[in-house]
Amino acid sequence: MSRNGTDGKPRFRRVLLKLSGEAFASKSSDSIDTDVLDLIARQVKEVVDGGVQVAIVVGGGNIFRGRSARSSMDRASADYMGMLATVINALALQDALESAGVVTRVQSAISMHQIAEPYIRRRAIRHLEKGRVVIFAAGTGNPYFTTDTAAALRAVEIGADAILKATQVDGVYSADPKKDPSAIRLPKLEYLEVLQRGLEVMDNTALTLCMDNDLPIVVFELQRDGNIKRVIWGESIGTIVGRSGSSVTPAL
What is the distance between the alpha carbons of residues 7 and 235, in angstroms, rounded to a whole number? Predict the structure, then answer.
């Protein structure tokens, strides 16, 4: 797969887009923000129309966050509830994408045949090859693993060129930019540097999986329209996390 980032051509041919549950949250209520869904759908359609294969992993924190319930609830039960929340977000995103004219499939790691396909790696790859967007729901299907880990696992399984992690800020900073006005954006980082500095990119399990498979992560701001295409077409936005000297990412 091409990773050259040549002008006019996408740097990545197949990507996995990681969306947090918080990205779906409405500021005015507990419902899903349809404006955000429409923004995501427009951006995804733009890159799919450009020939890029897109898979998506969604979180469920806007509906239920297992981590916050663990003090009063069995950990496994809380995590399964969080997985079910991701399915709700996946179905909402599927509806928005198909309304925008993008053929979409939802694959769930927990079997629920009436509303989603079971996760089957070869079927997912075939959907992508046919130009369909595949949304992976229910995390890995196992408690004790985050949707970050699910994103890294699915990206490796489908042979994605990169993970695009959409956030509320325009990259990874040296400190919390909301609390420290002197914080600076870090345009390039190595995996080990992220681990050693405890930077909030992905959890350690996900980051280690990416490092072991030389899979780059691009952290960027979701709310700016067109950013998904900018990242895929190689514009210097956000933060690239990779290996120094890797052929997959620009030199770090």
Answer: 10
